[in-house]
Design a protein that fits this description.
alpha+beta
Amino acid sequence: MAGEDVGKRIEALENQNAELKELVNQLKTELEATEKRLDEIEKAAAAGGGKQGGGEGKKKKKDKKGGGDGGAAAPKKDNAREKEVKAAIKEGGKKAQDIAGMHDMGGMSFFALTMDNCKGDWELLQHAMDGANKEVDESGDDRKGGAGGLAKCLLSTDDSKHLAMYFHVPKELHAQLTLKEWVDAMVVGIGGKALEMSDEYCKYEAPQNSDKELFPLKMRDQAINQSFAFLKSKKLMPEEDEDDYDMGAMYEDAGIEW
């Protein structure tokens, strides 16, 4: 009888795993379709803008031949920055969509997220946080954002300068873990200081220190590992059994840090 009970439990866990994996795949498919549609809309808008602005473009070329005012480099620089801002907002929103889905499936509320497009730039990290906390229009096509009620730490590195960590712990989650507790646990041994701290938000920066072998990427990984251990000690992580191991693998497949 005991053997039959174990067999039934294993079968139930396998069925649950299969359902969760199917849901993750559905979420990924929906996200890819939405991103493709948004890209098509952006391309169409850009093409329309180009046609409408044709006369102005000819005028600028004429001004350049005649000497112009020497300000041609400024718009190019502004356009590059605009692309960086859009990329940061998109990355923050996409990561938020992922963790919101993971929260619905596994119940976790605390996440450490690596931000590849922000490059340790605080302005870009702010745009990423805004993108993550953006409310989602349930009737719209864009599903990015929706993580305003979840705790998160956005980690971004300027590989030759510093590690930037932008924390957000909503007041509703302070009973489980306060902002200061999480910050203190993650920054052990990496140095640095808090640039700003409020009840819910903290901007923390750790500079590179070659003498102590503290490099931005190394500090980022150390902070993530320390967060994992601390959240686990506070029972804010899934228990380690066969089923939760598969959940962890799915988190990694979706690009989510623990």
